[in-house]
Each structure stands twice: as C-alpha cells, then as structure tokens.
Amino acid sequence: MSTLQNAARTYLDFERPLAELDGKIDDLKALNGSGQDGGGVDVSAEVARLEGKAQAQLKSIYAKLDAWEKTQVARHPSRPHFGDYINGMISDFTPLSGDRKFGDDQAMIGGLGRLRGQPIVIMGQEKGHDTETRLKHNFGMAGPEGYRKVVRLMELAERFELPVISLVDTAGAYPGRGAEERGQAEAIARSIDKSLSLKVPFVTVITGEGGSGGAVAIASADSVNMLEHSIYSVISPEGCASILWRDAAKAETAAGAMKITAQDLIKLGVIDKIIKEPVGGAHRAREKTIKSVGTAIMAALKELQPLESKARIERRREKFLAIGRDLA
Predict the structure, then answer these.
(1) What are 167-208's pLDDT values in tens digits?
(2) What pTM was computed for the model?
(3) Distance of CA 47 to the CA centre of its chain
(4) Are 76 and 12 a contacting pair, CB within 8 Å?
(5) Closest to 15 (Cα-Cα) out of 226, 249, 228, 279
(6) Looking at residue 104, what DSSP letter applies?
(7) Which of 66, 112, 133, 157 could form a disulfide with 162 if both were Cys (CB 3.0 to 4.6 A apart)?
(8) Nearest in space to 169 (alpha carbons), one of 79, 296, 68
(9) CATH superfamily placement of domain 72-321
(10) Which residues of the chain have pLDDT under 50?
(11) Cβ atoms of residues 148 and 190 within 8 Å
C-alpha cells in the first residue's frame, strides 16, 4: 500500500485529489498567518470554500470505496489500534501476561477492565504505531503463546462470570518456524473451541484487518461486529493472489472476488452488525470511532446477558454452523 504525505497527514492513493485540495488550504492558511493579504483576495472566504469542497469530496470518495480501497483504509497506519481503544474506552485496565507454558506474546494483549462501569475481560492484537512498537508487537501477528493466553483469559472470565470482549486487527497469526514448532495450529484450534463453548457473553469487533485463523481464533463470538471500512477474510488478498495467479500484484482483483468487506459479509451472514465510521474513515476521527465501538459493544452485551449460558452457547454454535448453508 503506497501513501502520499502532505503536511502531517497520510493520504492513500485514491485520496490524491483530496491531498491536493488540503495542500492548497494549508498554503492559504499559511499566507493568512504571515500577515500578507494574498494580493487582495479574501483568504478566509477562499479557505472556507475549499474546506467545504474538500469535505464534499471526502464524502464522495468514501461513499463508493471498492474492496481493495477498503483494504487500504483497514490497514491505514493512523487507524486506532488496541492500545487506543483501551485508553479511550476502558477504565481500570489491568493487563495480564503470559500463557503459563512458554512466555508472553506482545502481539496479543489482554486483561481486566471496565467498559462504562461494566467489568469485562478484554483482549486483542496490537500492531504498534512506529518502527519500535511494531517490532515489539510483531505487527500484530501472534504466536501460539498469544492464543494460549487468550484461552487462559477466557477461563478466567468464566470463573468470575465476566463478559469477554475481543478487538481484532491482524494480518494473520505469525507464520514463522518457531510458532509452528510450538504448535500454532493447535493453539488456534483450542482458542476457537474455547470461544464456541464459552459460558459468558462474548462480543467481538473487527476494527481493522481480520486475517485468517489469527482473527477467527478470537472472533468466534455471540456477536460479531465490524467497523464500516474494516476487512475479514480467510487469507490476505496478496496471499490469495499468490496462490491463484502466482502473482501478489493481482491482490486488487483478489480483494474484489473474496467478499471481504463488512457490506458483503453481513449479506452472507458471517457478521452481525456494521459499526458506522466517521466520514473519511476511523483514522480521521479516532475518538468518535472509539466511542461508537464502545456503544456497539454495550448494546450487544445488553442483548446477550439475560440469556442462560446453555442457550447462549447453543445459539453461538448454531450461528457459525449456519454460515454458508443457504448459499447453494
């Protein structure tokens, strides 16, 4: 994904016209601030006009994004990550570390906290926001110890009858040799199994990328929600293109065929709700996005909590077994 830089902003390729407009606005503001009169032009009026035009253009661009463009938005480096959601909507957060078998996976963060006063267990992938933190968190790609940590947290939630919340944002589980040697597939399978048999309410939100088993391992929930411009798939578009055409450059074609957007997946019955993003994507109004996610989680919990655990487990399993049944 290539981007354009303009001032302190990061623009995606399809936002090029917007970048040019914002550049003009910045130049006019700088001219106004320098004390010059702009050659007799009413600078403030022109700035207001261009800002209105930029907002209209932004709305127009984001109203017709295709699957590949949504993939780029889902991967935007300024999109809120797990740590941002914790800081923005969880109080009294206490992180819990380690899987009690091998070590602590920094790609998968989890612990105890309160969401609008409701005690919860929360977990999710953290990608990092700069080179140092991305390396620390392994770009959000968890190893087996990360998924064993998830199982440990779910068991803790059952013991204390706390709802479980997961925030999904990963390109996939870490595919390295060490992860395979330590049982990556088995750890993911156990995490999915625990998710489907969890006795407490379980709500997940796909906030960016929902990639492969690395996402499904913590997304087999009672209520599966997706942000409007996030993606969810069994493999990345690049990986799909490499397998089908032996050419990762055909990722755009693959993205269109894979039905990875929230709008496609709600029609297919894979997810339950789409959470609307601010105009221009979550990265343009992070606080507003985080508030919307918190509201959606609370609404889902309100629906799930009155149910008996046996009925909830049965409904959860049936929901996943029903995916694809009516597509023949």
Answers:
(1) 999 999 999 999 999 999 999 999 999 999 999 999 999 999
(2) 0.90
(3) 34
(4) yes
(5) 279
(6) -
(7) 157
(8) 79
(9) 2-enoyl-CoA Hydratase; Chain A, domain 1 (3.90.226.10)
(10) 1, 6-8, 38
(11) yes
